[in-house]
Amino acid sequence: MEQQREERLQKFEQMLAAVEAEYQKALDQMAALREKGRTKSATYYQLMSSKMTYQNMLAMYAVWGLREGLPGDEAKR
Questions:
Q1: pTM assigned to the model
Q2: Is the confidence at residue 73, as pLDDT, over 70?
């Protein structure tokens, strides 16, 4: 039973890291498109949608106390 809990916790940590990485990847790609003036492109809008999805997931982790801070808090400091 304890081993199952450890495996579950490990999977959770991996998922959280993957969501944080995808969120950052979307932010970086959006910034690159902004620099090129392509904020009206379909790709930019798709990235915006992905960013918002990951942002909401991370916010839920924060609400439940599983992550410190909300997405974007780092930029405000």
A1: 0.84
A2: no
